TrEMBL record:
Protein name (Swiss-Prot/TrEMBL): ABC-2 type transport system ATP-binding protein
Family matches, as SUPFAM superfamilies: P-loop containing nucleoside triphosphate hydrolases (SSF52540)
Biological source species: Tepidibacter formicigenes DSM 15518
InterPro entries, sorted: AAA+_ATPase, ABC_transporter-like_ATP-bd, ABC_transporter-like_CS, ABC_transporter_ATP-binding, P-loop_NTPase
Gene3D superfamilies xref list: P-loop containing nucleotide triphosphate hydrolases
Keyword ATP-binding: yes
Length: 282
């Protein structure tokens, strides 16, 4: 696969604070790319530069071999955006929200109707098409937001915390929709706090903290870099500690020396993140 997004030495500062720090990254066409990190890591700032809302202080962003900037109309037509915060018109129905989104991209007539009906069915929101957006459940609102982002059939979809505040069942249904989109050849960039979400959906995951990407690989390779087993235990000060092992016998031998309660389990992606940042994803 060829790269569809290329980020070269990008830095974004707000006064003395550096939100994104000399970042380099390539994202391949047709991939599902996860950006994982805690609050303040720089994820949303990076996405804002990728979609042309913010201008880097240094460096450049290229999408489909063109430099992204606020005035690049062609690139903006190739992008769909699902923001973290609800962006629906609460006084319009589900279908009216889609009609409004379609008009913004100058979709007209039969083409507009066909696309709206397709998305209503695809997102499983046909049954609520005449319901006011303010009366939708959290999961339905998120589905409608994804439908809005897809109204113009973009090549690239940016998802900023797309399942935040959504219950587990609705989250799983949204995951299924996103996996189908990936199978259709869309390039998807996901930022999330939910580690299991990134692990389940993404081909590659970049771990980001303090404006830098410090690891970028598949979930399995990320975990393998740390080991295979985790011993999670209390130390003498009742503080949770983690120790990682490649060999099960070594992990068991260490466990036998622990006086407090412990758990011996497979290494998780959260272990990898915690090991490199020394803090949980919150």
């Amino acid at each position: 696969m060829s790269e569809i997004i290329k980020i070269e030495d990008v830095t974004k500062k707000y006064g003395d604070f550096t939100a994104v720090d000399k970042l380099n990254l390539d994202i391949e066409k047709g991939s599902f790319f996860g950006l994982l990190g805690p609050n303040g890591a720089g994820k949303t700032t990076l996405i804002s530069m990728l979609i042309g809302l913010l201008k880097p202080n240094e460096g450049k962003v290229f999408i489909m071999n063109q430099e992204m900037n606020r005035n690049n109309v062609f690139l903006k037509k190739q992008i769909g955006i699902v923001p973290q915060h609800i962006n629906l018109d609460k006084d319009l129905t589900v279908k009216e929200n889609l009609i409004l989104a379609a008009k913004l991209f100058k979709l007209r007539g039969k083409k507009r109707e066909v696309q709206i009906e397709k998305l209503l069915d695809y997102m499983d929101i046909k049954k609520v098409e005449n319901r006011m957006a303010r009366k939708l459940s959290g999961g339905m609102k998120r589905k409608l937001m994804i439908a809005k982002a897809l109204i113009h059939s973009p090549e690239i979809l940016f998802l900023d915390e797309p399942t935040v505040g959504v219950d587990l069942n609705a989250r799983r249904k949204i995951w299924d929709i996103l996996k189908i989109m990936k199978d259709m050849g869309k390039t998807i960039i996901l930022t999330t706090h939910y580690i299991e979400e990134a692990e389940y959906l993404c081909d590659k995951i970049a771990l980001m903290d303090k404006g830098k990407i410090f690891y970028n690989d598949t979930s399995e390779n990320l975990k393998r870099s740390l080991g295979k087993y985790t011993v999670e235990y209390f130390d003498e000060n009742k503080v949770t500690k983690y120790k990682f092992f490649k060999d099960i016998d070594e992990a068991k031998n260490f466990s036998n020396s622990i006086k407090e309660n412990f758990i011996l389990r497979d290494i998780s992606l959260e272990d990898v993140f915690y090991n490199f940042t020394n803090r949980k994803v919150t």
